[in-house]
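Why does this matter for the project? Reviewers at the last site visit asked to see concrete outputs rather than summary tables. In response, this paragraph embeds two records directly. Each consists of the residue sequence and, immediately after it, the corresponding structure tokens. Nothing has been edited or filtered.
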Amino acid sequence: MNHTQPPAGTQAIRRALSVLRLLRDEGGELSLSAIARRLGLTPGTTHRVVGALSVDGFVTHNPHTDCYHLGAGAILLGQAAQRVHGLERALPIIEGVKAETGESVNITIRDNSESVVLLRAQSTLPLRFEQHPGARFPLYATASGKAILAYSLDVEAYLASLPEQLPPLTTNTLATRDDLALALTETRDRGYSVDDEENVAGVRCVGAGVLDDQGLARAAVVIQVPTVRLPDDRIPELGARAVAAAREVAQFLPPDRLTQR
């Protein structure tokens, strides 16, 4: 028996998951040809995969546009995952922070070298940065990434994996690995992280790690603010609020569910 062969059906499962991830990240509709092109699949394969996902409602066809989007099955699956991970109880906490501060608030997790938005309470102020759950950003350039890395067992390995000169996302992105290491030390010293327009120009953020009983970060609470509303003297206030919210959220996130990879 050849033990190097993947289990039967693995390729089909991966293709189905890739379609779901694509539609999730797209946030709208895509035609069969667009799905095939984005994923490098043949039209016939794409038709079969999308058809199978449509049977149980994970994908829905819009006859008016002849495009596909996530269906009710995906919504129900997401809702079940939120209950399992305690996010239904965490949402009122970040909604409360939004109400107090007027600013957008995220709960994020780590997925390898990226920070992923898991839950969001969007500011209702006219000037705000639009974002959605599922959005991904490099750990090194975000308040969420720093808040998680500062309390992670593999922080040294992560730093060693980076190039000496960090790829810039804005003119404010930290320049080097050493700069990031210093920022992580500062995060631990004050208890919260800061993103000073390092990921998105015109947006500053503060973040706090959601820590388990061993002091390791399982997630982060991040307050996201247009730069014009976040002068330096407001950062400690929002940092303290993020820390308090992260402590509340920690009560509801099961320690064995949201794990780093």
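We now turn to the second protein, recorded in exactly the same manner.
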Amino acid sequence: MQQFGFNQCAHDHYLFFLWTDHGLVSLLVYVDDILLAGACVEPLQKVKAYLHHLFTIRDMGDAHYFLGLEIARKPDGIYLAQTKYILDIIADTGMKEAKSIATPFPAGLKLNSNTGDLLQAPDSYRRLIGRLLYLCFKQPDISYSVQQLSQYLNHPCDTHWNAALHVVRYLKGCPTLGLFFPAANTLDLHDYCDADCASCFDTRRSLTGFCIFLGKALFSWKMKKQSTVSRSSTEVEYRSLAATVCELR
């Protein structure tokens, strides 16, 4: 791809960019699956012809489904969802008959390492959290829940498992929820950040959460634990703001 003129993304080595006279062309590759995106068909056809010259490829046409991601193209924009992926999670966890709930995490629950009895089958917990981590690709509303639950993969307890099932019950109530990227949009950046001071009982470190909009389109978000223990709530907020600014750069 670099020989063709693409530049590899520094943050995601599976993503490549190419600037052409017709605008930006993006290429995402995962093993033998490739997703091409651009504002004009002509440069996309040239990339596909180049790849077909090197390898035998199969052109699947307009993208509708890619690695569990459902893509719906409309005149007013593009809608991304993972409905089938969510329904598979619900079925595999045996929650098809469970009642849905309105919140992605139990209200007031603070997890720690010694919050219950160790699970006898921890692999089920690890597999579920792994699937939820992939779901965070387009589901910012569960970012906090998954960040909390992913800290206890080594020694999960029954309380962690119940909290994970709580997330599944939440997803059961909104399986079609997704992201919409409008065709008519501005290039104005808006970012929002917040912090939860000393919220981790095990390390006393704080959490930082932020989301970034391009116009009306949400395109970046993260929930992570701060790298050091802060001495005041003011320091926590400044660190959260700094993390958001670094993401914008």
